[in-house]
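WARN retry 2 of 3 for item q-0093 after timeout on previous attempt; input resubmitted unchanged.
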Amino acid sequence: MSEAITIADIYKLFERTEAQFAEFQKEAERRNVEAERRSAEADRRSAEAEQRNAEADRRNAEADRRSAEADRRRAEADRTMEELKKQVRATTEAVNNLTTRWGRFVEEMVEPAVVQLFQERGIDVTQTMSRLKSKRPGAAMEIDILAVNGSELVAVECKSRLSKDDVDDFLDRLQRFKLAFPQFRDFQVYGAVAGIEIDQGIDSYAYRRGLFVIKQSGETVKIINDAQFRPLGFA
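OK item q-0093 returned
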C-alpha cells in the first residue's frame, strides 16, 4: 500500500517548487542582465563603428578635397607654365629679331667702309660680299662680310655687342673657312671683328689673336689696330 500524502509533504513540495522558481527567476534575471550588457556593448561597438565610418568618410572627403585642390593647382601651374613659355618664346623672338636688326645695322655701317679701310692697311681688296653661307658637312657657317681681291680676302664678323665668345667662335670658323668655301683655297685669308659695343678688354683680346678690330667712329667706322699690328693669316 502506498503511503498517505500529508500536509507536511505538500508544504515541502511547495517549498521546493518555490525555491526552484526563485532560482529560475534569479537565472532569468542574470541572463537578462547579461543580455542587456551584451546589447549595450553591441550598441557601443556599433556607435564606435559608426564614428569610425564617419571619420573615414570625413577623411575620404578631405582626401578628395585635397586631390581636387592638387588637380586645380596642377592645372593652374600648367596654364601658368604654358603662358610663361609663350612669353619666353615671344621675348626670345623679339630679342632675336632685335639682335638680327642690330646685326644688319652694323653690317650696313661696316660694308661701305671696309674696302677703303683695308686698302689703307695695305690689303688691296676691291669688292665686298655679304652674308656668305656654306652648308658643307663639318664646315657649315655664315660670314657677314667678305672683302676680296684676286688673291686676298678679309672675313668680317659683325655684332651689335662683341663678346669673347663671339671672337672665339669666329676664330674657329676661320680655321675651317677654306673647307667651307673651297673657291678661296688659294687666297690669303685675314679676319676682322666689328661691334657697336665691345665688352671690356675684348678689343685687346681680338688684337692679340691676330684679328682686325672695327669700331664705330661718329657716323662711320674705323680700324683701331695700331701700326705695329700684324694680322694673322688663316691657311
